[in-house]
Design a protein that fits this description.
With 132 residues, the protein is mostly helical. It has 5 helices and no strands. The longest helix has 50 residues. The chain is elongated, with a radius of gyration of 29 Å.
Length: 132
């Protein structure tokens, strides 16, 4: 009974998808030895319920499928989605870094122009008190 409750309540948290699936599969295998095997549909629901918000995009279509997924098929889909999320995160980080670099560069260029116009010439034609 305790193993079934663990399987029902398990959450991925900060684990990789591989770690999470390994734990879920180990629990399901233990339950199968003690009691009876868990159906692919039930195992899929246990996995999906513990994934968290990062996997909502892929969990929704899996939930609405008419045919069952084997654990191996589910494993492959989720590992692929995790790889996609990592690539997306890397691309986003690179885009942000590039945007920040461009913005900093533009700011520095504008800053140099205003520095030179404000400190080396007086717009009213008066002599500047700048020594140099």
């Amino acid at each position: 009974m305790q193993l079934k409750e663990e399987l029902t309540l398990i959450q991925r948290g900060n684990r990789s998808i591989l770690e999470y699936l390994h734990i879920v599969k180990a629990l399901a295998d233990e339950i199968a030895i003690i009691d009876h095997s868990i159906s692919d549909d039930d195992l899929t629901l246990y996995v999906l319920n513990g994934l968290g918000p990062d996997f909502q995009e892929i969990a929704a279509p899996i939930r609405t499928r008419e045919s069952s997924l084997t654990f191996e098929e589910l494993h492959d889909l989720l590992v692929g989605h995790e790889a996609y999320l990592k690539r997306l995160g890397t691309a986003t980080q690179q885009l942000v870094a590039s945007a920040n670099f461009t913005k900093t560069k533009q700011y520095a260029q504008r800053g140099n122009k205003s520095w030179s116009s404000n400190n080396y010439s007086n717009p009213r034609g008066h002599q500047s008190y700048h020594s140099g």
